[in-house]
């Protein structure tokens, strides 16, 4: 077994004992070394965003003191959900290794497919309603004109 995947699986397995969240673990690797670790803490933190991949990305960013994880790789015990894929992309991670599939997760009760279906326009689980653009666009214009901005 790949050593980094072994670590991700060990983090997932911890949740079988702690019940902090689902059986998911992840590590962020840079230069052959683990720089971030995380397992699912949705239940422990009462935080639906506390997935293993997000926790590992947060840990890596803290440890490396950066929001940009370019040059890092993500090893995760399960194929990332849409939120975790987005977080991975925002972090500039370009390679993800995963163990279990989204179908495997569905078989044990996780509902990633509903979100994929929403993204594809196949269900209406969420209403998106634009309001007050005329009032909010000014802040965007001010940011565009800001001389000391950082784009991420």
Give a topology summary.
Blueprint (H helix, E strand, L loop, with lengths): L2 H16 L6 E6 L2 E7 L2 H4 L6 H13 L7 E7 L3 H9 L4 E6 L1 H6 L4 H8 L13 H13 L7
Parallel strand pairs: 3-4
Antiparallel strand pairs: 1-2, 1-3
- Number of contiguous helices: 7
Helix content: 40-55%
Overall 3D shape: globular
On the 0 to 100 scale, the average pLDDT is 96
> What string gives the helices and strands in order?
HEEHHEHEHHH
Please summarize the sheet with the most strands: 4 strands, mixed
Estimated radius of gyration: 18 Å
Structural class: alpha+beta
Distance from N terminus to C terminus (CA atoms, Å) equals 35 Å
Strand order of the largest sheet: 2-1-3-4
Q: Ranges with pLDDT <50 over ≥5 residues? A: none
Strand content: 15-25%
Number of strands: 4
3D structure, described in words:
- By secondary structure, this protein is an alpha+beta fold.
- Helix content is 45%, strand content 17%.
- The protein contains 7 helices and 4 strands; from the N terminus they run αββααβαβααα.
- A 4-stranded mixed beta sheet has the order 2-1-3-4.
- It is globular and about 55 Å long.
- The model has no long low-confidence stretch (mean pLDDT 96).
């Amino acid at each position: 077994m790949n050593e980094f995947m072994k670590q991700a699986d060990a983090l997932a397995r911890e949740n079988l004992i702690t019940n902090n969240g689902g059986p998911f673990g992840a590590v962020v690797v840079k230069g052959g070394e683990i720089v971030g670790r995380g397992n699912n803490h949705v239940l422990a933190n009462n935080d639906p965003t506390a997935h293993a991949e997000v926790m590992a990305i947060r840990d890596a960013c803290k440890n490396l003191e950066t929001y940009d994880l370019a040059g890092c790789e993500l090893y995760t015990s399960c194929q990332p959900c849409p939120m975790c894929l987005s977080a991975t992309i925002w972090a500039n991670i370009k390679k993800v290794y995963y163990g279990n599939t989204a179908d495997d997760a569905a078989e044990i009760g996780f509902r990633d497919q509903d979100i994929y279906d929403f993204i594809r326009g196949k269900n209406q689980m969420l209403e998106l309603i634009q309001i007050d653009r005329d009032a909010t666009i000014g802040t965007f214009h001010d940011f565009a004109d800001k001389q000391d901005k950082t784009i991420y």
